Amino acid sequence: MMYWIIFAIFTTAEVFTDMFLCWVPFYYELKIAFVVWLLSPYTKGSSVLYRKFVHPTLSSKEKDIDDYICQAKDKSYDTLVITIHGLTVMHAVVSDAAGQGVLSDRLRSFSMQDLSSYQSDPTNTDSVTTQPAAAQQRTRTMMRSKSESYSKGENTVLHWHAASCY
Q: Which parts of the sequence are annotated with region: Disordered (predicted)?
């Protein structure tokens, strides 16, 4: 473990030293020699560095580190609670709007308006416009009743779902 902690510190420092010290002669060879020194079981370089620098620093700052972890845990919990509350409120608003028929009426009115303008368009030569007027009226009535029954069923489901969430 000591090696990996020292190697992580070395890798972090390496990002900055590569920018400024790459022009130093034998810089890359020195880096390789340092990593070999860290890895070698004979020199135990990582153990020496860990025990001399890292462990005393972590021991002296242990209380501060524990306090910081507790603060981060509390803040993350508070953020999660606020997010869940916001999602619950948003769900209730959308469910109420859909349950009152605001969304379904608006969507149905747009779709029916588009359909009636499509059928009454004189430039349209599709088979829809060639149907007799009585057949077109039956089609409109049937589509409207299906749409209304679907939206009523959907509203019931949404009301049930909104009620089950509270």
A: 116-148
